[in-house]
Amino acid sequence: MRIDLHTHSSASDGTDTPGALVREAKAAGLDVVALTDHDATSGWAEAQQAADEVGITLVPGLEISTKLQHRGVHLLAYLPDPTHGPLTDVLDRIIAGRTERTPAIVAALQAHGIDVTEDDVRREAGGSVAAGRPHVADALVRRGVVADRAEAFATLLSPGQPGYANRYAPPLEEMIPIVVEAGGVPVIAHPWGRRGGTVLTEETFGMLAELGLAGIEVDHQDHPPELRARLRAIAADLDLLVTGSSDHHGLGKVDHDLGVNTTDPEQYERLVALAAPRP
Ligand code: AMP
Ligand code: FE
Ligand code: FE
Ligand code: ZN
Hints:
Blueprint: E1 3-4, H1 18-27, E2 32-38, H2 44-54, E3 57-68, E4 71-78, H3 85-111, H4 118-125, H5 133-142, H6 149-155, H7 172-181, E5 185-188, H8 202-211, E6 215-219, H9 225-238, E7 241-244, H10 265-274
Helix pairs in contact: 1-2, 4-5, 5-6
């Protein structure tokens, strides 16, 4: 059984529609795929319809942008009730923060002499409610300012660079209990990836486990083998689940093909058993 528990569609910053993503997952030989768009559940219905059509198990989820000690931490939430009030309140607030940030980024880029408009970004964001820096990057690519998303993040859109602007993110310590109350299963995404790093120590994972954290995404392209081994040991110590995924973004991220990392079936069964029964 091949299980990929972290992917993005055009409901956030992936380039495939939710339906196309699910069909690609089937074609890639996966048996289970989770759709985990940033801060949005709007792709679930289309993805579920496609999953029913092609015969693949869809795990509805999302990847919530949180903060811990002023650092961004991504929290995967599997199978939560998408109508749970406290959850929708936080997601609305994050989306509002994303929407307000776009003009700030565009103004900063313009002040830096770059010809890009809010309309450009809106066009790239298309059907996504979670407008983000990847869509700004796409606008810059179309304008010929940079070659690809990676160059945009490397030169313009990261903290300390000319086109960076902050946005609202809820505290991780508040978000984990909200996901649990919503009947969902919280798992820290790529904890030691590009920007994760130092705040997520073993002690921190212990504190998060007490708040209800269920697992750690260990097998991710941002983690070299040595870090995976250390994270696996921490998960074993704290009795946390270990997951693996592609973090696929369609054409938006190279080297993240569907199924490039997968989740052990036994870990997946444990994860599903932790979620509240769904109607
Ligand atoms: P945002 O959530 O709008 O602040 O944008 C962050 C998102 O941009 C991340 O979740 C990634 O999906 C994406 N991202 C970050 N760095 C890169 C990169 N170097 N290349 C492509 N996408 C990236
Ligand atoms: Fe992303
Ligand atoms: Fe992420
Ligand atoms: Zn992701």
